[in-house]
Specification:
It comes from Imhoffiella purpurea. By secondary structure, the chain is mainly α. The chain has two domains: about 160 residues, no CATH class; about 300 residues, no CATH class. It is about 70% helix and about 0% strand. The protein has 24 helices and two strands. It has a two-stranded antiparallel sheet. Strand 1 and strand 2 form a beta hairpin. It is globular, with a radius of gyration of 24 Å.
């Protein structure tokens, strides 16, 4: 059986809400960059200075302050403050931008494949959202309190505007300019550069109806983008010209103009590995869509746009030294758009193993997390398992949270229902993967206090570098102090490692 358009859209809507809300609030920072961003938000909220973000008493001008500005505004919302603490209210900014990303990704996917609906593409907007929810990059970074959540929202909005231009110069220009402005205020030039290069190169792929329409759309987009590009830099310059120069030249132009170089083969292989991991499984379906629908490249402007922005984006990532893996989040959207065209034509040989992998993987996760929850709920203590005690603090105190329990139960029921109702080799069986991802996040939300305590016991999670997948824990301050106070007799043996 294949889910109809309306039912799939409703199911996607439910899964998206659960995904956005799960683990968004109610826990301590799980990654180092979250600590840094929340500190900037707290400093801005305490000082009331909305122009110069501060961290540890120093100006934090690595990026424009859109994310902390949004978070501060949410912190000051009285109705929101009644339900969540001030520190958690700041995290709602990430949920807001994640929701915007999913909405415009759905619109972009639907607009891309709309001309091919008669050829059995299906509800491409919903499938784009589901693919995006299931990518590992979105799973890893999607809920983080970081400026990149605003970057991916702006980039997705800008891409939708570019594709909208042939039908409406005004609305296309509005969404393109606003998206580029949001991307700029989120992370600087990276997002607008990718959107701009894509917009300039689009006519060479015959993506737009005419050169005049292109010029009018770009001009209108620049007008809508102008406030985003001009207001905050002008306010910063009026506040302190030296800070403005530091931001413009030191943190914005110089890293990209003077540090553009193709990396070593080892670094490029690391970036390739990062791309394959972050974009899984969307990168599998994107080329498959072009193979299964060979006429899509020539007949659908949205397909050409998604291909173009993917090539441009990954090329910029390779040559721009400041680019980090988290910046590649915005490039997951075009891959998900392309992959949506392959879902309904997936070969049986691919559907069946993916369905079984999803069943086994998320089934084990569900049994483990529900089993742990049940033991805590009814025994009130840790199971006497040596391997488990090595990771869970012995003094962990369990607290029953009915709301999180109901959400986790709903997500689990939906996943089981999908497994039983949509069976391989029907392509709808692929729903088991995104539904399993959402269920996992809902179950993690059920164990948020436990995750907080585990992280507190083992140290703050470090930032993952290019090509690194596993969580790496920093050494605690006590361990560092103990190492620094080691006897002089052993200093000669440890000198070389310590210097490194």
């Amino acid at each position: 059986m294949r889910p109809q358009g309306g039912s799939l859209v409703l199911l996607t809507f439910i899964l998206a809400i659960v995904f956005v809300g799960s683990t968004l609030v109610g826990h301590a920072p799980w990654k180092l960059h979250e600590v840094q961003n929340l500190e900037i938000v707290q400093s801005m909220a305490d000082s009331g200075d909305l122009v110069v973000p501060m961290q540890a008493g120093q100006p934090a001008l690595d990026t424009p302050p859109l994310y902390p500005l949004t978070a501060v505004e949410l912190v000051t919302v009285e109705r929101l403050a009644q339900y969540v603490p001030q520190t958690d209210a700041a995290r709602v900014a990430s949920g807001l931008y994640l929701a915007i990303t999913l909405v415009f990704a759905g619109l972009l996917g639907r607009l891309t494949w709309q001309p091919a609906v008669s050829k059995g593409v299906g509800p491409a907007g919903a499938m784009t959202v589901l693919l995006l929810l299931g990518t590992l990059g979105m799973v890893w970074f999607g809920h983080d309190a970081i400026a990149d959540s605003a970057l991916i929202a702006g980039a997705t909005m800008g891409l939708y505007g570019l594709l909208r231009l042939p039908k409406s110069v005004f609305w296309g220009g509005l969404w393109f300019g606003t998206g580029a402005g949001i991307a700029f205020m989120a992370k600087g030039l990276l997002g607008p550069a990718i959107l701009g290069i894509t917009a300039v190169a689009m006519p060479f792929l015959a993506t737009w109806g005419g050169l005049g329409r292109q010029i009018r759309g770009l001009i209108l987009g620049l007008l809508f983008a102008a406030p985003w590009f001009l207001v905050w830099p002008w306010l910063l310059h009026e506040r302190d010209p030296q800070l403005f120069d530091q931001w413009l030249w030191g943190n914005t132009l110089d890293p990209y103009l003077n540090n553009l170089a193709l990396g070593t083969p080892e670094e490029n292989l690391e970036w390739l590995w990062t791309a394959l991991v972050m974009a899984f499984p969307a990168w599998l379906l994107a080329p498959l869509a072009l193979l299964l629908r060979p006429g899509a490249f020539f007949g659908l402007p949205g397909v050409r746009l998604a291909l173009l922005v993917s090539v441009v984006g990954w090329a910029v990532m390779l040559v721009a030294e400041p680019a980090q893996p988290v910046d590649a989040l915005m490039l997951l959207v075009p891959l998900a758009v392309l992959g949506a065209g392959a879902v309904t034509r997936m070969p049986d040989l691919l559907v069946m193993p993916m369905k079984w992998v999803s069943t086994l993987l998320f089934g084990l996760v569900a049994v483990a997390l529900w089993g742990l929850w049940g033991y805590f709920r009814f025994q009130g203590q840790l199971p006497e398992i040596e391997q488990l005690a090595a990771y869970i603090p012995a003094d962990y105190g369990y607290a029953f949270q009915p709301g999180l329990y109901l959400v986790a139960a709903l997500a689990t029921v939906i996943w089981i229902w999908i497994l039983m109702r949509f069976r391989s080799p029907n392509p709808s069986a692929l729903l088991a993967w995104p539904a399993g991802v959402v269920m996992t996040w809902a179950l993690l939300a059920l164990h948020q206090p436990l995750v907080d305590q585990v992280i507190a016991e083992r140290g703050m999670i470090e930032e993952p570098g290019v090509g690194e997948l596993a969580l790496r824990f920093e050494k605690s301050a006590e361990a560092a102090d103990a190492q620094s106070s080691a006897p002089e007799a052993t200093s000669s043996e440890a000198a070389a490692p310590a210097a490194e």
